[in-house]
Amino acid sequence: MPARSLRAPTASPGALHTAFLTVKAAADYLGLSPHTLYVWRHRRQGPPSFRMGPRGRVMYRLEALDAWVREQEQADSRSNEALNPLNAPRQERPTRLISA
């Protein structure tokens, strides 16, 4: 993940341009290939995207990308202790009666 700030500037005139990212810019931001984002979009997976403008360019909101990354972190048991199977309560096996 890039070392830059994850928040889009809101006060500058260029904020509109940084609040929405093209597929290539979103892929660069996430450290993925544009092809991966296209495949995910086709499969309705990955971060939310939408079409913008008369030509219908696929765009991503920067804040939606950040939220999607946070969701991925929380869904991973290595990042979320509540999902770690080693933290689950121990389950005892029922004892089996042996009949002769």
Structural description of this entry:
The protein is α+β, with helices and mostly antiparallel strands and 100 residues long. It contains four helices and three strands; from the N terminus they run αβααββα. The chain has helices at 15-19, 23-30, 34-42, 62-75, and strands at 20-22, 50-52, 57-61. The protein has a three-stranded antiparallel sheet. A hairpin with a 4-residue loop joins β2 and β3. The longest helix has 14 residues, at 62-75. The radius of gyration is 21 Å and the shape is elongated. Residues 1-13 have low confidence and may be disordered.
Quick summary:
By secondary structure, the chain is of the alpha+beta class. It has helices at 15-19, 23-30, 34-42, 62-75, and strands at residues 20-22, 50-52, 57-61. The relative contact order is 0.13.
SSE blueprint and pairings:
Elements: H1 15-19, E1 20-22, H2 23-30, H3 34-42, E2 50-52, E3 57-61, H4 62-75
Antiparallel strand pairs: 1-3, 2-3
Helix pairs in contact: 2-3
The rounded Rg comes to 21 Å
SSE class: alpha+beta
* Total of DSSP H or I helical runs spanning 4+ residues: 4
Order of helices and strands: HEHHEEH
User: Describe the biggest sheet?
Assistant: 3 strands, antiparallel
The coarse overall form would be elongated
Any key phrases for this structure?
HTH_17, 100 residues, alpha+beta, three-stranded antiparallel beta sheet, 3 strands, elongated, Helix-turn-helix domain-containing protein
